[in-house]
Task: inverse folding
């Protein structure tokens, strides 16, 4: 009888870890081998909270939400190319929103069941940093709205043509 209870508990834990994205998929997400101390030293406290602890910045508080310049958006932690300004649109939500990625190979999408919701988390493949979420309510032909935290992004302006 005790073995059956232990088996049920272990199975429950494995299911929970898998649902939270902390099981087999987690190892495939991050190519980076940095320690927590290294991330804390390299990122601002806000970036660390968002990218390493899966936090969210307040709506309309991010430095890139109203950016309309041409260029590319990269991961603030590792520099991987993520989005182009050509895919950015004003969703009215208070976070930078994109209808497609610049390079799908640089991100991983994972089911996120936190906070009593079912969402799709967007993660940088190179460093494992939490970027934001993908919603299927976008206004363009893709139907996608990548809702990304400004603190998780760096912006590189396009070179001006002479």
Result:
């Amino acid at each position: 009888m005790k073995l059956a209870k232990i088996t049920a508990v272990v199975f429950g834990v494995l299911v929970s870890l898998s649902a939270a994205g902390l099981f087999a998929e987690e190892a495939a997400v991050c190519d980076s081998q940095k320690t927590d101390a290294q991330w804390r030293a390299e990122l601002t406290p806000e970036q660390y909270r968002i990218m390493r602890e899966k936090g969210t910045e307040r709506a309309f508080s991010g430095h890139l939400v109203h950016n309309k310049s041409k260029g590319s958006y990269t991961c603030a932690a590792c520099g991987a190319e993520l989005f182009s300004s050509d895919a950015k649109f004003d969703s009215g939500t208070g976070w930078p929103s994109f209808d497609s990625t610049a390079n799908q190979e640089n991100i991983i999408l994972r089911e996120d069941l936190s906070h009593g919701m079912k969402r799709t988390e967007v993660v940088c493949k190179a460093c494992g940093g939490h970027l934001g979420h993908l919603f299927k309510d976008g206004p363009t032909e893709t139907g996608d709205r990548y809702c990304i935290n400004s603190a998780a992004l760096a912006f590189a302006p396009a070179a001006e043509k002479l």
User: Anything to note?
Assistant: The chain has two domains: 1-30, 31-157.
